[in-house]
Design a protein that fits this description.
Helices cover about 50% and strands about 10% of the residues. By secondary structure, it is α/β, with parallel strands linked by helices.
Length: about 290
């Protein structure tokens, strides 16, 4: 997805916000100048998640280590794990458990400490009851089922902690419906925000339902030309890819692969782009949308 003016403004605002704790105006100004330079020199293929990855390298040089989300990740993994059994019972009661599992896993995308100014457990719970925001595009879903029937290698590009518990429930239903599929999950290779890593995936038991691999880097998305070895091979060989979250959409939209995108619209640009209210769920196919 190409960088747009609204995303540039958001990038600048968020960098300014993270400097509020510091007093050295000279250092802060120098940092923001470097940030502005990175944006100005970025190419057409640059995405917000990739630029934030570059910003973080500059931030460390000026101000030291970035915020540690370890406790936040533990909290939300534990929080959703405590809900797991009840939610899975709801999924199994549904007319189409797989469709319900996709919707529930998409609701988990709300737990995002990058796109969201504030994550509220009350709002998260309310999303499970908000039917207006939980539709699943029937045509896209039918294409998804057909691809799963004919394909062999399935790759889920994971996003956030907490969310991955619901991804696990989705994968259980997917394997039940399509036992021939080889399931793989790709997580972040380094710590970034509250995104899921290999350690987080193991904590919630994701490795019990699918093979889990790291992507090898600390970008809060999936940048193809940064993937190496096993991660690159798995992406290239996947027959069906389910991409979770806005950041994976931002880094992959336009690549032309057989990708299905599942995310909540959590910012003004996404809400405007798809003409929906905040926190509305989207289920899209790469081949049927414009970059």
């Amino acid at each position: 997805m190409r960088l747009n003016s609204m995303c540039i403004r958001c990038l600048i605002d968020k960098q300014q916000e993270r400097l509020l704790q510091f007093q050295d105006e000279e250092k802060k100004a120098a940092y923001m100048k470097e940030i502005a330079g990175i944006i100005g020199e970025s190419g057409d293929d640059a995405s917000s998640p990739y630029l934030v990855y570059l910003f973080n390298q500059v931030y460390r040089r000026y101000f030291g280590e970035i915020r540690d989300y370890a406790e936040v990740k533990k909290e939300y993994n534990a929080y959703v794990l405590a809900m797991e059994d009840a939610l899975y019972k709801d999924i199994l009661k549904a007319k189409d458990p797989l469709a319900q599992a996709i919707v529930y896993a998409r609701i988990g995308n709300y737990i995002d400490f990058g796109a969201m100014h504030k994550v509220e457990k009350k709002v998260f719970l309310e999303l499970f009851q908000d039917k207006r925001k939980n539709d699943l595009d029937k045509a896209v879903y039918q294409s998804f089922l057909q691809d799963c029937e004919s394909g062999r290698r399935f790759l889920l590009l994971a996003d956030n902690c907490g969310e991955i518990v619901l991804d696990k429930l989705f994968l259980k239903e997917l394997k039940k419906r399509f036992p021939h599929l080889e399931l793989c999950v790709m997580v972040r290779g380094e710590e970034v925000l509250n995104d899921a890593t290999l350690e987080d995936a193991e904590t919630v038991g994701l490795h019990n339902v699918a093979r889990v691999i790291p992507n090898g880097n600390g970008v809060g998305g999936t940048v193809e030309n940064m993937l190496q070895g096993e991660a690159k091979e798995v992406l290239e060989q996947a027959d069906i890819i389910l991409s979770k979250g806005q950041a994976n959409f931002e880094t992959l939209n336009g690549c032309g692969r057989n990708i299905y995108y599942s995310f909540l619209c959590k910012c003004d640009w996404f809400s405007g782009r798809f003409q929906v209210e905040r926190n509305t769920g989207m289920f899209l196919r790469e081949r049927e949308i414009l970059p």
